[in-house]
Amino acid sequence: MRSRSGFVLLLSVINLSFTFVLSAECPRKLIDKAKQTFGDPLNVEHCVFALSHMNAVWLIADPKGELVEVVVGPKSQYKSEFPDAETPANPEFLSEEEYKDALRRISEVKSIGAMTKRHERGLWSFLGAFSTDYFENAAVDRVIGDTPTDLQNEVQYVRRFDLHFFEFVSGAPKYLRITIGRWSV
Predict the structure, then answer these.
(1) Alpha carbon of 58 to those of 27, 128, 157: distances in Å?
(2) 46 with 30: CB under 8 angstroms?
(3) Cα separation of 90 and 23, whole Å?
(4) What DSSP character marks residue 158?
């Protein structure tokens, strides 16, 4: 399963790097729906909402205005968005209950479906220690730590996570080649 998790992570990095370029403004219908769940946006242009006093939610839409990704993380890690957020002495983590509540609230905006596969022991990558949960309509890459030693913890608290909605298509398969510098996927 490592290759699938690695592939999801690679897609996460690629998706995150291009998504902010694609969606210059958050669609009005997405803002209205998210306001019912998260309250007033912290930043309308970037489609940012408060999850809690420490954590924020970024809703990322495709050019058609459909929600394709959700990024959740501590405000203190996003100084460009939250310059006044204090850096805590210890890293901030979501408990298992806070993580489940965040997923429930996101599902009110767009359904992620039932869990199909719970994360396994975390893996180390250059982005941190991560694990992936799979749902009927989405995959969630959970960053569970910032160092390889964070993988030794039995309890996997979530530092931040990226939720990627699946896009179901039909028809003949198409090949996608992505080139980043010297690397092709």
Answers:
(1) 13, 20, 20
(2) no
(3) 33
(4) B
Predicted local distance difference test score (pLDDT) of residue 17 = 40
Token pair 């979530």 in the structure block, residue: 158
Q: What letter does residue 94 receive in the DSSP assignment? A: B
Residues across the chain: 185
| CA 67 to mean position of chain CA atoms | 12
CA distance 21 to 150: 32
DSSP assignment, residue 48? E
Q: What are the CA-CA distances from residue 31 to residues 24, 155, 158, 165 (Å)? A: 14, 34, 26, 18
Break the chain into its structural domains and give their ranges.
2-184
Q: Which residues of the chain have pLDDT under 50?
A: 1-23, 148, 151
- Which ranges constitute the DSSP H helices of the chain? 2-22, 28-38, 96-109
Return all residues near 149 (Cβ < 8 A) that are at least 6 apart.
none
One-letter identity of residue 57 = V
What global pTM score does this model have? Answer: 0.72
For residue 127, the 8-state DSSP code is: T
151: buried, middle or exposed (CB in 10 Å: 19+, 13-18, 0-12)?
Answer: middle
Q: Quick one: pLDDT at residue 85?
A: 83
pLDDT of residue 18: 41
